[in-house]
Write a structure and sequence with these properties.
By secondary structure, the chain is α/β, with parallel strands linked by helices. The protein contains 19 helices and 15 strands. The strands form 4 sheets. The chain has a 6-stranded antiparallel β-sheet with strand order 1-2-3-6-4-5, sandwiched between helices. A 5-stranded parallel β-sheet has the order 12-13-11-14-15, with helices on both faces. Strands 7-10 form a two-stranded antiparallel sheet.
Length: 523
């Protein structure tokens, strides 16, 4: 195929007008990108996903031209034009002679060290200030964007319904791989309920001018914090995805910051945006809905790449892992303020699951190991070698620890933030304290009981002890004593029993689905 011929050629310096010193390559589900010293050449794959069709040469040329036109709204000096890729007797060259094989969007290469995703990865100290500037810029871009009504003869409400219907149809083949059938059903039902309940509002948003021609793919990888800030790679292939409620564009970036574990930056960005944007009384109602949408779309896109037989094996596996994480985040956005309790023997993976759930829900994570050592005035990584239930693990100390955990949990639950208490909860009495707390605050509660084979748990504990980097003092030699003391949850506690050997994404999926099935969603 011509696409394979072009790809092989562009991996060699002789294909370029000025031979580069090096060529870096990256691919997505729809494009192949070739980075030289000064420029980037982006070639569209000849794929058809229904919502996107690049299967003909004329289509790829048209959408290359559209990409340049539309992105010059945000980064006029970055998008240089469209280049032809031709083949003659001497080979394949950009701007060469002979038969046209394909087209490439030609861009200036922006400094990688100033890309928002890279700045986040290294926790650059200037990020909080940069979020304030970015929030103001996004508000100005929104105000200048073209107001759209009846986009291509389709109302905003019709476009929302069509986008979601398409999402669900295209994700269905990945059930059991990227997400569970339960998760898909819960998200589908929540979306349908929201659209039906807010039908009038969604129609009014278009009438009031809040539906505009925006970016459509606004996340950290598409923002370069240079001076001026450059935003690039908007959606050109489907106007229906780009023209949307202004909340939808901002929701994408907020979701991306959440996904990267930077809810603090998301809060700064949101505050700066709100301070500079036009007043919007419906913003808080719509934001969770569009965050779910953006996380779901990213999960879908990565599912596509994970199923691309032509992509490298490591690229496909990474894409599947990312897709699972995005779908978990979508579930997390739907989760109401809940008190989640882990329960189980040492080494069963309680902390790992608790941390995963905290990332996708934004709940406050309270870890008994840290609270216990704080009460005792010890460093988090200071190890203890006392026998079982002695030293700071004596019953009196444990009582103080659970009391403090309950106090901290109530402080978070009352204003409406979810809480995850990561503890063994060996005694039924300690669990009851938190059931009473949930009833007192009017919040749903879920006990997650992780269980596994003793040999596996002991091996995990030996490995953790050898690493010496965790706050837990659980050791393999203490496991039998804890097992004897453990009071398993009874059916009246309605525990969710999870096999400690299950993959973490499956554990998290089951936990969130259980909460949503019992307590409903926030939409």
């Amino acid at each position: 195929m011509n696409s394979d011929i072009v790809h092989k050629a562009l991996m060699h310096a002789r294909a370029y007008p000025i031979a580069p010193g090096r060529i870096e390559f990256k691919e997505t589900h729809v494009s192949r990108l070739y980075f030289t010293d000064e420029f980037v050449y982006k070639v569209k794959k000849p794929v058809d996903f229904g919502f996107l069709n690049f299967t003909t040469l004329d289509r790829r040329r048209f959408y290359c031209e559209e990409e340049v036109r539309l992105n010059r709204r945000f980064a006029p000096d970055t998008y240089l034009g469209v280049r032809e890729i031709r083949r003659d007797a001497t080979g394949v060259h950009i701007d060469g002679q002979g038969e046209v094989l394909d087209f490439a969007v030609w861009m200036k290469r922006l400094p990688a060290e100033r890309m928002l995703d890279n700045l986040i990865a290294r926790d650059a100290p200037e990020l909080p200030q940069a979020m304030e500037a970015l929030g103001g810029l996004l508000a100005r871009i929104e105000q200048e964007a073209e107001v759209c009504r009846q986009n291509g003869g389709m109302s905003n409400l019709e476009a929302i319904r069509r986008n979601w219907r398409e999402n669900f149809e295209q994700v269905t083949p990945f059930c059991g791989q990227s997400l569970s059938a339960d998760a898909l059903k819960l998200i589908r039902d929540a979306v349908a309920t929201f659209i039906e309940k807010q039908e009038t509002l969604l129609q009014q948003r278009e009438e009031q001018g809040f539906v505009r021609d925006g970016h459509g793919d606004l996340h950290a990888e598409h923002i370069c914090l240079t001076e001026p800030i450059r935003i690039y790679d908007c959606i050109e292939f489907n106007r229906r995805f780009r023209v949307a409620d202004v909340v939808a564009d901002l929701a994408f970036l907020l979701m991306d910051l959440d996904f990267r574990g930077r809810r603090d930056l998301a809060a700064i960005l949101l505050a700066a945006y709100a301070n500079a944007a036009e007043p919007d009384p419906d913003f808080e109602t719509l934001l969770p809905f569009y965050k779910v949408y953006r996380a779901f779309v990213r999960g879908k896109v990565d599912s596509f790449l994970g199923a691309d037989a032509k992509a490298a094996a490591e690229v496909r596996q990474e894409a599947v892992d990312l897709a699972r994480s995005y779908f978990l985040l979508a579930l997390g956005y739907l989760t109401p303020c809940t008190l989640i309790l882990t329960c189980g023997l040492m080494g069963s993976g309680k902390t790992t699951l608790a941390q995963s759930l905290a990332r996708v829900t934004g709940a406050e994570l309270l870890r008994s190991d840290l609270v216990r050592k704080e009460l005792a005035g010890e460093r988090a990584t200071e190890g203890a070698s006392a026998p079982y239930e002695q030293g700071i693990y004596a019953p009196s100390w444990s009582g103080r620890t659970y009391a403090r955990l309950a106090e901290l949990a109530e402080q978070a639950l009352r204003p409406g933030r979810g809480v995850i208490v990561d503890a063994s909860f060996v005694r039924a009495e300690d669990r009851q304290r938190f059931y009473d707390l949930a009833q007192r605050t009017g919040r749903p509660v879920l006990l997650v009981h992780l269980h596994g084979e003793e040999a596996t748990l002991a091996q995990r504990l030996r490995e953790r002890t050898a690493a010496g980097t965790d706050a837990s003092d659980g050791r393999a030699e203490l496991l039998p004593a804890q097992q004897r003391a453990f009071e398993p949850p009874d059916p009246g506690e309605k525990p969710l029993r999870l096999d400690a050997h299950l993959p973490l994404p499956e554990q998290a999926d089951r936990t969130l689905c259980t909460i949503l099935q019992r307590a409903g969603t926030i939409l």
